[in-house]
Amino acid sequence: MSVLDYTQRRLYGYRAPPDKILLNYASRKMPLLFDEREYHMGTLNKVFTAQWLSANQVVCATKCNKLFVLDLKTGKQVFIPTLQSRSSPPLGNMEHCGIHSVAINPSGTLLATGGEEPHNLAIYRLPSFDPLHIGEGTHTDWIFSITWLDDKFLVTGSRDSSVAVWEVEDSIQSAQPTGTEQSCSQSYPDSCLGQLHKQQAAQDNQGEQLHNQAAQNSNVEQPHSLADQESSVNIPSYSTIQAVLTKKCCLGEKVRAVVYNSRSEELVGLTSNGYLNVWNVKGLKEVCTASAPFSRENTSLILDLDKRLYAVGSQSHVSLMDMTAMKCALNIPSKDKGTGVRSISFRGDVVTMGTGAGSLLFYDLRAGRFMDCNCGMTLRLRTGEGWLRHDEMYQEFFSDQDHFPNAVYSHLYDDTGVRLVTVGGPLPAGLWGNYAALWS
After folding, report:
1. What is the distance between the terminal CA atoms of the chain, rounded to a whole angstrom?
2. Which end of the chain has fewer CB within 10 Å, C or N?
3. 118-152, pLDDT tens digit by residue?
């Protein structure tokens, strides 16, 4: 129903929810009005995921294992120290895999993401970014996806084909401290994160200068270790936690995404080889296992409770699955076949998909077709240039290509639906580059 139809029918007593009408109207009109503003991300490699922190801030994570807050007004970045385990050694296959997921609990007080070793879970308190917990001893491979069940419990899905339930207490005293660290009550405000990094960098430079001076003059006493110098900096400690429950997928390989259906109290995990595993969250009792319509490169899974639909992104399609029967209701072919659907979202009656070829496509569920540009051509928003490192890999294998589109690894609308954040980077695994932009 259009806004004009609604105002006319309102004269006769029709009372449709105005917020729903405005949502559907904006979801159809805004893609035609979007204009891109790119952000300079330095030399980071592939921004895998992002979440809104506030009206003008998003928290992002990268393949090079960096966690940072991006200010959308100024473009400035504040890097958050990743949490490192002191009791379990890093696994050999962890190099260059990165942090794949960032999730904020419903009340907005806790943030969960990957740790320094990407098979570990890291918990921070918001908005201060105080480090709270490091979750370890559960997964043996990368954590691909994180979703909160409520303010206290969350679920992780891993490349080791398992899911795990974690209980998180918003108190450092609730778990065992890592190593010899003791609980610290000092605040760690996000406004001071940049200053803390500057202090640490200055100490690093000072330590290097002292070391060089000692090397040049053997009669000079060796300076204290850098660890001793850093001990004077009062940085909050964090505690170790372990999962309360784990479950292995029977048929699937590599859990790429997990979502929580609060209406049925069920957890759904998508595996890369095309299986949807459904568990009841009470004890992770298996409910059923369904096959996705396509078995290649299943990487994205979202849920729309109002429409009672799951959306599965694969190599060349977005498949809509009925929430109750777990049967395919509609297969939407991507306009960029072969590069994969890397991110999906529902907004009103429009399904937005980000592809590996650097496109944003908009499918109108009510009209049953892709949105067009009022000229018969499919509406397709292209990602900007981003940044690409011309290293040895590029020179040897890709130097004959002038341009690499930036895959849209994640995209997210704000609450109003009039702004859209997109993050990503080059699709080939061997290329090093990044991309981030705001569409408004």
Report:
1. 24
2. N
3. 899 999 999 999 999 999 999 999 999 999 999 99
